[in-house]
Design brief:
By secondary structure, the protein is mainly alpha-helical. The chain has two domains: 155 residues, no CATH class; 161 residues, no CATH class. The chain is 83% helix and 0% strand. It contains 13 helices and no strands.
């Protein structure tokens, strides 16, 4: 149901007044326009930055080193002034545009200085310098995009094989330590959300870290569920994996209900039902080739669809609390 229809019903049921309805609609229109324009400015900033890079690259060989450095730092100074101007005049979209350009220019400046003075150091040193020098723009920005790019840049410093070893350590041998690791990660996520409540008016980096962390926990839980719950022949390991997956998803659904977060509840409810179906499909594989297997499979699919429909209806009933 659209917002217009909802507010109309609320007026008819005397939940809100017609004046409140108009205020709600006006506020939502204004919020939607801000989101659209901010997104447009971000896309424009990326395109302009790429266009400048291509233009300079086409004439790179004919430019003297002194001209390159002067032009680079002059552009940098102009962007810093543009950020200051946009903040003073409260142009949020332009501020994000100039901040993104300045962040990208930090990497370009490091590369330019390294090329002119023949510096060496490899990707790790370049990425670390870019992450450190670009941090002020990340803190200044209200865009999750630039914060996410900064976190990816910082994470790229670490060698992939070390990350693989960490993952193998966590889920290589399924023990109680795996559950403890997930609890620790969730505790860190909870702590970051508390920090976000205090800093969200100023920086969005805690929100970005929290999103990446909760995505990582989901991937870890799904990996555990698939590796040990669905394909393991060891009953104790499979039971432990089921306990982790359903415990985590159930906890997320409970927290979503407490916080009246319908999207989180919907996501976790559907994941739980899909995982139940995956357990049946993997554990009852031998029955699929028999008549009873097809009957049980058909009944379970009907039950699965029925459960999804019930979940959908329940979610629709909850949407009033959103």
């Amino acid at each position: 149901m659209s917002l217009l229809k909802k507010t109309t019903v609320w007026v008819q049921e005397q939940i809100i007044t017609p004046e409140q309805k108009e205020k709600i609609l006006a506020f939502e229109r204004q919020s939607g326009n801000h989101t659209f324009w901010n997104t447009a400015f971000i896309i424009a900033g990326i395109l302009i930055g790429l266009g400048i890079c291509l233009l300079i690259a086409a004439n790179w060989s004919v430019l003297p080193a002194t001209v390159k450095l002067i032009g680079d730092f002059a552009l940098f100074g102009a962007l810093i002034f543009a950020i200051y101007w946009s903040i003073q005049n409260q142009h949020k979209g332009l501020k994000e545009l100039f901040t993104i350009l300045a962040f990208l220019l930090v990497g370009g400046t490091i590369g330019l200085v390294g090329q002119i003075f023949q510096l060496s150091g490899g990707w790790n040193n370049f990425a670390l310098a870019w992450a450190l020098l670009g941090l002020p723009y990340v803190i200044l920005s209200r865009s999750i995009f630039i914060n996410m790019a900064w976190l990816v840049l910082l994470g790229s410093i670490f060698n992939g094989k070390y990350l693989g070893k960490i993952l193998e350590y966590i889920v290589g041998n399924f023990t109680i330590n795996t559950i403890i690791d997930i609890i620790i990660l969730y505790a860190i996520y909870w702590g970051i959300t508390k920090i976000q409540d205090k800093t969200d008016k100023y920086i969005v980096l805690p929100k970005t870290i929290g999103k990446l962390l909760i995505w990582s926990i989901y991937l870890l839980v799904i990996y555990i569920g698939c590796r040990w719950g669905l394909i393991s022949s060891h009953n104790l390991q499979a039971f432990g994996a089921y306990l982790v997956v359903f415990g985590f998803l159930g906890f997320r659904m409970y927290m979503a209900t407490r916080k009246q977060n319908i999207s989180s509840f919907k996501r976790n409810a559907v994941l739980a039902e899909i995982y139940i179906f995956a357990i049946f499909a993997s554990k009852m594989g031998n029955l699929w080739m028999s008549g009873w297997g097809f009957i049980l499979g058909g009944l379970f699919i009907l039950a699965f669809v029925f459960a999804l429909r019930k979940t959908t209806r329940y979610i629709k009933q909850m949407e009033i609390f959103k």
